[in-house]
Amino acid sequence: MTAIHVCSLSKLHDTVRVAAASHLVSLVSEGTDLERPPDIAAGNHLDIRISDITEAMEGEVLAGPQHVRAIVDFIDGWNGDRPMVVHCYAGISRSTAAAFIALCVIRPQISEEKHATALRQASLTATPNRHLVALADQLLARGGRMVAAIDAIGRGTLAFEGTPFALAIGR
């Protein structure tokens, strides 16, 4: 069984190396310096430049349906033979939203509540970006269950940076 690893930008290279990951999802703001780890082939890296916001703000990039579609398509294209790393700047909001979305895509037979609970158990700081989750909920036709599930786990413990964690998945 493989896993999805979640981390901050500062822990990216170590997490990819230790996890022996083959795939990477980066969710960072425009202008953020990002060096793809050498263990990740260019075709196995999804680099999405969005701000960590939940509503439009001047000068910021609000996630749109096309960003969530790219995440879902990337997850669908991953065979799961080796781990995937998902990261954002702090490893708390955008990356945990993408990891939650991935769980819902990979294991749709498991309830959104169970996926959200697994996320909370893996990380006390996880605070999935609600806007990203809402877009995924619409795209995946989940009828509001994804949003309700992350609302139920509530905001994570406040932190500047999350501790890297992994979510085991079956593929």
Structure in words:
37% of the residues lie in helices and 16% in strands. With 171 residues, it is of the alpha/beta class. The model has no long low-confidence stretch (mean pLDDT 96). The termini are close together. The protein has helices at residues 12-19, 65-77, 94-106, 112-122, 130-139, 145-153, and strands spanning 2-8, 23-28, 45-49, 84-88, 165-169. The chain has a five-stranded mixed β-sheet with strand order 3-2-4-1-5, with helices on both faces.
Share of β-strand residues: 15-25%
Q: Number of helix segments? A: 6
Across the major sheet, the strand order is 3-2-4-1-5
Mean pLDDT: 96
Q: What is the terminal-to-terminal distance?
A: 7 Å
Low-confidence sequence ranges:
none
Which word captures the global form? globular
**Which structural class is indicated by helix and strand composition?**
alpha/beta
Order of helices and strands: EHEEHEHHHHE
The number of distinct β-strands equals: 5
How would a textbook summarize the main sheet?
5 strands, mixed
Proportion of helical residues: 25-40%
Radius of gyration over all CA atoms, rounded: 14 Å
SSE diagram, text form:
Layout: E1 2-8, H1 12-19, E2 23-28, E3 45-49, H2 65-77, E4 84-88, H3 94-106, H4 112-122, H5 130-139, H6 145-153, E5 165-169
Parallel strand pairs: 1-4, 2-3, 2-4
Antiparallel strand pairs: 1-5
Helix pairs in contact: 2-3, 2-5, 3-4, 3-5, 4-6, 5-6
